[in-house]
Amino acid sequence: MAEPLLAMREIRAGYGDSVVLDNVGFELPENGSLAVLGRNGVGKSTLFLTIMGYTTFRRGTIIWRGRDITRLAPHRRALLGIGWVAQEREIFPSLTVEENLVVAARPGPWDLARVTELFPRLAERRRNMGNQLSGGEQQMLAIARALMTNPALLLLDEPLEGLAPVIVEELAAAIRRMVEQSGTAIILTEQHAEIALSLTRDVLVLERGTIVYHGQSAAMLADAAVLDQYIGLRLTDRVKA
Q1: What CATH number does domain 1-81+185-235 carry, 3.40.50.2020, 1.10.150.530, 3.30.300.30, 3.40.50.300?
Q2: For residues 50 and 36, is the Cβ–Cβ distance under 8 A?
């Protein structure tokens, strides 16, 4: 059996004295794709912060390609190939689009030409400052900048939040191409549950910091009753990107 890219085992973590995640465990294979779903406040963003090393760790083990990184500093996890696009995007407003991308570049297949092919809007706006972009363009830039680090795993925290439907479709299509063509593994949190499921192979659902469902995305997508039970959303209109 192939060694997983990432393995989370019996994770218990939070902030200070507060425990948010309790007994969370899963494995992600090389080139895998995982949707993390759940209502607001159940621990989805905390899971990402724990993978990156920013939470108070109480119990468990994080294994990256066979190596225990449980106590590794966040910047060293990034150097190992874990990329993260936070909800806040955190682009550099005083740098141009191109400068935002080049400053993050590390050797690998994702370069300036490839990320602007994935996001043509960025090529058109390459000389604009980060603070001159729309919200959707800033999100494209945040994802493209993370790709410029050539991660083996990309964490996407609510990448479609607050965006217009046409931009949601454009971003979802780009993420789909990235997953299908690049070999980059992703873990995706998203309130657009049906889109998240259409973009990923596997899914887990968090409730009060614990995993209450873990299965294949296609199976959950095909079962509106299950989705409604765990997420509280019905598949009334599936978005095709």
Answers
A1: 3.40.50.300
A2: no
